[in-house]
Structures are given as structure tokens and as C-alpha cells.
Amino acid sequence: MSKRIGIAMVALLAMVMLVLPVSAEIKTINSGNTVFVGEQGLNITNAVPDDFIAYWAEGQSQTDVPYTINVSSQKTSFYVARNEFEGRTGDWYSWNGTAKTQLAFKVQIPSIDLKIWNSVTDKDVSDKSVVRGAFLTFRIESNLHPINTRANYVEGADGFLTVKVKDPVGSVYTIVIGEGDVQNPLTKLPREANTMTSSLWFPEGNTVATNYWATDAQVGTAYVYKAGSYQVWVEADPNNMKTNWNSATGNVVSTLRTVTIADDTVTITANTESVVRGNDFSLAITGRPNSNYVLWIDGTSGALCAEIPAIKSGQAGVSVPNATAYNYTYKAGTNVSDSAANCNGSYAMVTLDDSGKRTVGVSTVASTNDKTYTFRVQDNKTYAIAKFDTVKVKVTKGAVTIDAEGDKVYYVGMDIKLFGENTDSEKVYLFITGPNLASNGANLDDTTQESINDNDATFHVENVKSDNTWEYTWATSGVGLDAGTYTVWAVSQPKNKGSLSGVKYASLSFQIRKAFVTAQMDTTRLAKGDKLVIKGNAEGNPSEGVNIWIFGTNLAIDRTESVEDDTSFKYENSNTRDWSAGQYFVVVQHPMYNNKLDAVRRDDYVVNLAQNLTEFKIIGPNRLMGSDAAEALVQVLNKPNIDDTYVKLYFMLEEGYINIDAIGDQYIGDKFTMKGTTNLAVDDALIITITSASFRPTEKTQASEFSGASGTVKVVKGTGVENAWSFDVDTTGFKPDQYIVTIECVETGTTATTTFTVSEVPPATPTTPPTTPPVTTPPVETTPPVTTTPPPTTTPGFGAIIALIGLGAVAVLVLRRH
């Protein structure tokens, strides 16, 4: 291509043209012309000789009254208004008020679209990439071409179409440079003799040309069109239609298209830098559209095919194997065959699509060597001018993990959910080691079968999911395990414990225990009416629960209770008030390994399901009762063909009683505690009422004579075999009287009564303090005679007297109180 400088570059971004052709006259409408909704200023005088135009909607007969518009004042400046015509497209007629006289015009909704066209390959490249050097043009698809057939249209005059091309930095071109540096306009199309006469149209005419936009045009040594993405669209504005349509896309403005101009290079990228073997990855190649490129795995010559990645066959645009690619000389004296392994998938010929792109899938397997591989792509041209690119992908070994739900302590017969990940292969192989099993492992599903290398049937095999996870719910019932510590192995290949070198694996150790059941009661003495509660723990996850058997005089109960996730269970019965007093026997039955209760009640009998035998009767005449029934059940459960286990309990059911300790007589204002013992259950509620024996109804005008107290207390655990209760009483406010104590148990209906007396506090007796005689002081003599005088008698002092008075008062009070 020749190169232009100066004028070509200025013209590229020019906003005006040096020579302006005559504007086209497209306003005159003759009879039968097509007009478009949104056109303005039309002269319809020739098309409408009458004052009205008329329209019949689809489905109407022309004998019906038409829709009419008075155009008498608009004939030289008619507006095809959207509100009038957008819903009334088709034929309109000149109307004289009573009849149509001629076809006036046809009304259409405008439409327009644009595609970026490769004028050499004659293909649409909209929203695609082209290599610099491609010749492009614009295919306009529109129904506006009838405008160019109007009576006064001047061929070669300026048109009403404008193609907009915006470069990557935002400049909008008014021309593009074509082959031979020809400046091709983008505004006021169609121009000159390129009349738009069909719905498919190119700026240079109704057929595609080859030189409208040269993407490798240069100014000096610089490319005019830099590499990057260009936006292209077309606008139509005949008779102010673009404004009246508010630049509506699809009507007067086309959908925005893009084209990316790329340099003539080739690139290859991978969707990952590293991949775990056994997984696929992809390579993305970009270059010239519809061109061939050689792809191969560089540096693999002589490698075993199973140990290297493979380009997948059967892909669109990818020829595997390909002799041309294998024999291609990619540098002086060196062919692809010297660099790539001679394997199906080590080399290929890749044909890029219309956008100059192709994605190529590559696979790896468990035996692929873990190393870095180089993939090279090169233009299928003479090596001296061929462009190439490389990308590296590292293949790594995967990993295997194993875990299990729960605390790694399980019971024979339980289902154990095993799970983990395997990024090294598509299957995981499971086997088990432990007491009395094959030293190198046994089949998880049949522990008597030894796991043998490369024999899938001797392992439990699970497929790995697409997210590299796997899981298996292992039913341990019937696999032949006893209590002990075991290890389950997860391996990426069918290898047993003795051959795990170089193989990815993981192991999980856990305990298998025998299932068992425990049970207990809060007390072995139960008052009639109290709730019977039996609780305990059942290990081994018995899905059927545990069975509770209760036997007594004329009583046989069996009830299955579910076992919670924490292994606990609980049985409650609040109907003991109706039971006979006496001894009762309890058997709590666990289904054990087969997770099935083997001894059950069926109608009036206990049945041995393991042998399908009716063992003994527990309801009706000739039944076993109490200890006999309990012992018979235990004997059934002890049979060798029944694996159920059990625990035995017993309790005494007694008539309920409440003992009240003796209460002495009290004085008003005394505080004391009533207490006693009972065989009622801990936490039973006791309602205590203390009422005056002389309490009676009064008139409403009289003050109440009631005095006493009431309250509720709970039975508490006693120090011996009996439980205890207590109630604090404050006699302040009591009247002197005999008081009746009533105690009633809410749960059992048990009652007890007693009485005590409250008296007035007697007045204190006053005491007279002793009289102390006065002390006479003898007169002092000046010269006393020398005489010997006996010592005087000592009398109590004040403090001592007060002390004695106090002691006397205390003695009187004590005597009076008692």
C-alpha cells in the first residue's frame, strides 16, 4: 500500500469536506411513495389531491368508515407524527369526504442496523478481531432505501446516512482511508452514484467492495489506526427523523458494534499455571483469523505417551494427529518431530476462527509425570518469518484425604460415613487393616477377602466427583468386625498397604466397640401417684430405640423409646396411682448389632423373632407376672441366636405417706420450722395450710377472725431412704387458738394433718430490789485512842445487784414459758 502524509491524516479527523455536493431533495411525495414515521416537512400535494387522508386498519373492509386526518393546511409541510402513524402503518388514501380517490402513500416504521464486514473474506466481523491489514467496509441493513426513489431525488446528491467510527482514544472519524490511500467518506451517505436501492447496502454500492477501510493505512512509518477496539454505528436522519425519534436504537441509530484491530502476532495462554494430574486444562491461541498454526509440547521427544499431557482430539479447529504439523520445520534444521513425542496428542494443527481465536483442551491422567511442560504455537509459515509464542504449565501430583463423621469411636452395626478428597485420580480405593485381618488389608465390604494389588474387585471403589470429593457410607453390620482398633486406607490407585510407595494415600484410625445399654431410676421406692422415670444411655446408635418392659402384679407394659443423638433415652409414666402397691421388675432391651429388637410383644405374648417362636404369655389367663415374667424375658434374651442385650432394674411401689415431726405449743410471735419425712418423690409439691380451729364464716360487716399461714414446698432428698420436707412458720399475727396443719401432695393426692397451740405471751412478774442501809461515818477525834476494831461486813455493789436482778428475771421467764 502507498503511504500518504499530511493531507491524509488531516482528512482522517476532518469535520468538514472541501467539496460539498448538492443536497438531495427527498421531501416531495408522489402517489404511492413510501414515507416513514418521524419524517417532517414533506410536500404531499401530488399524493393527496383531497383535503383528507384515510386509513383502514387490518381486518377492516374499505366499505367501513375509515380513520381520517384533515391535511388541507399541511400539504406542503406534512409531519408523519409518531402519535398518529406509529400504530397505523400501511396504505393511506386521499379521501374526498365520501370516498377514496387514489393511493396517497405507504407508511412504514424506520429500521436500521450495521455490520462490520471483511470485504476480502465477505464475512461479518462485528464484535470480533481482525489482524492489521484486513480490508473492512460497512454493511447497512435498513428499510429506508425507498427514500432514494422519490420523484425529485438527485442521484449523486448528499445522502441522509452517517457512519460513525470511534477509535480507542475517543476520536470520531468522518472519513476512513481505503486501499491506495483513498479517503472514503462516512457522512451524508449515499454519495455520488452509490444510490441505496435495497435493504442491504454498502457505502460503495449495493455490492461489497474490497477497499473501503484499510486497517494498515500509514502516515510515514506510523499506522493511522492503532491497535485496539473501535466502535462503529450508523445514524439516519432523513427530514429530521432522528430528532423526532429521539435517536431511538434500531429505528434511526443502529446497535453499537466493535472491531478490534490487532497486530499480526500470535499468543498462547493457559487457563492455569499448574494443574493436578488427572485434571484437564485449556490453552487459548490468538492470531490471524482463519489461519493455521502448529501447536506442540516442546521437549517431550522420546517420552512415553502415558506420561505426558495430551492435546484432545475431536475439537473444532484442532487436527490431532497432523502429519504437516509433525514435519513442520520450526527453526533451521529442526522439525517438530525432533522436539515433540510421537504420540497422539503431542502435536496438532490449529485453525483459528473468524475472530482469530481458538481454545484447545489438554488432558492429563494419573500416570502423567509431575513436571513443567512447555507448549509452543507457531505460524504455519516459513520459519524465518513465522511468529511464535510459548506457555508453561506445571503438572503436579494430587493428594488423597479421608475423614469420618463422629468422634472416631463407633459400635458394631453402626453406619459410618467416610469422606475426603482425591485430586490425583478419578477413583478412590478403600481397604481396612486391624485385628485378625489380612496384614496388607482387606476389602471394606468383606473383611475376609484380602486386598490384592491392581484387582479392583478386592477393594471398595468410589468414584471421585467433579469437585474432587468422594464419600461412602459404610454399614458395619455383617462385615465381620469385632471390638478393636482399625484403620481404613484411601488410595488413588488399587494398591494395598504393602505397595503404597509412590502412590497417594491417606489413612484413618478409629475404635469399634460393642454396643451396650445402661439404665437407672432416681429411687427404688416410689409412692403411688408419683411419676416413674427410667433413663439411661444406649450406645451403638440403635435406630429402633430401646424397649422398656415393666412387670408387676396384674401389670405388663412394653414401650419403645427413641435414643437421642447423645445416646440418652428416657421413659416416663405418670399413671402409677392406679397401680397396685408391691414390687415391680424392669428390663431395658437394646437391639445390638442387627439393629433389630429380636424379642417383642405380639398381642398377649412375648415372641422370639430370631426363631419365630412364641415364648410365653404376659396378658390374660395363665400369664406370667412380676418376677416370673421378667426372668422368662431375660432367659429369652440370653439365647445364642438373639444378639440383644439388656439391663435389669426393680422398684417398690408404696402407698404414699407424709410424716410430720411433733410440734410443741407456741407463743404468739414465735418462729419455728415444721418438718418431716415422706416416701414421695423429690420435687413433688406439698401444699401446706395452717388454719385456726375456731375459724368460722363472719358477717360482711365484721372483721375476719382468720389467722394462720399457707404455702407450697418441694420434697427434697433425705439423708436416709426417706425424703424430707420443711416449712417455716412465723406466728406473728396469729390469734391464741389451736391450729390445724393440713399437708397435701399435688402429684399423688397424699395428705397428712396435725395440730399445735398458740398462746398469748404471759406478762413478766416485777421484782423488788434489796434495800441497802445507810453507812454512818464516826466523828474524827483529834487524839484517837489506840484500839483494835474488827473488819466491817461487805455488802453487794450496784453492778452486782443489777446482774442479780437480770438473772432473776430470766429465771422467771424460763419457768413461765415452760
Describe the structure.
Strand 58 (737-745) and strand 59 form a beta hairpin. It contains six helices and 59 strands. The chain has 818 residues and is mainly beta. It is elongated. The N and C termini lie far apart (139 Å). Strands 33, 35, 36, 37, 38, 40 and 41 form a seven-stranded mixed β-sheet that branches. The protein has a six-stranded mixed β-sheet with strand order 21-31-30-23-28-25. Strands 1-5-4-2-3 form a five-stranded mixed β-sheet, with no helix packed on it.
Inertia-based shape: elongated
Please give the alpha-carbon distance between the first and last residues: 139 Å
Percent of residues in beta strands: 35-45%
**Over all CA atoms, what is the radius of gyration?**
56 Å
Summed up, the helix count is: 6
Mean pLDDT across all residues, rounded?
A: 87
Count of beta strands:
59
Give the helix proportion (percent range).
under 10%
Largest sheet: 7 strands, mixed
Low-confidence stretches: 1-22, 780-818
Helix/strand/pairing class, anyone?
Answer: mainly beta
How are the SSEs placed, and which strands pair?
Elements: H1 7-12, E1 33-36, E2 52-55, E3 67-70, H2 82-85, E4 90-95, E5 100-108, E6 112-118, E7 123-124, E8 128-131, E9 135-142, E10 161-166, E11 172-173, E12 175-177, E13 183-185, E14 200-201, E15 213-214, E16 218-219, E17 222-223, E18 228-236, H3 241-244, E19 257-262, E20 267-270, E21 274-276, E22 281-286, E23 292-298, E24 310-311, E25 318-319, H4 323-326, E26 329-331, E27 334-335, E28 347-351, E29 357-363, E30 372-379, E31 388-396, E32 403-404, E33 409-411, E34 415-421, E35 427-433, E36 442-443, E37 446-450, E38 460-463, E39 469-475, E40 484-491, E41 505-513, E42 517-521, E43 525-527, E44 532-538, E45 546-552, E46 555-561, E47 568-573, E48 582-590, E49 599-602, E50 605-608, E51 613-617, H5 626-637, E52 645-654, E53 666-667, E54 671-678, E55 685-692, E56 708-714, E57 723-730, E58 737-745, E59 751-759, H6 798-817
Parallel strand pairs: 1-5, 8-19, 21-31, 33-41, 43-52, 53-59
Antiparallel strand pairs: 2-3, 2-4, 4-5, 6-7, 6-9, 9-14, 9-15, 10-11, 10-18, 12-13, 16-17, 18-19, 20-22, 22-29, 23-28, 23-30, 24-29, 25-28, 26-27, 30-31, 32-34, 34-39, 35-36, 35-38, 35-40, 36-37, 40-41, 42-44, 44-47, 45-46, 45-48, 48-52, 49-50, 50-51, 54-57, 55-56, 55-58, 58-59
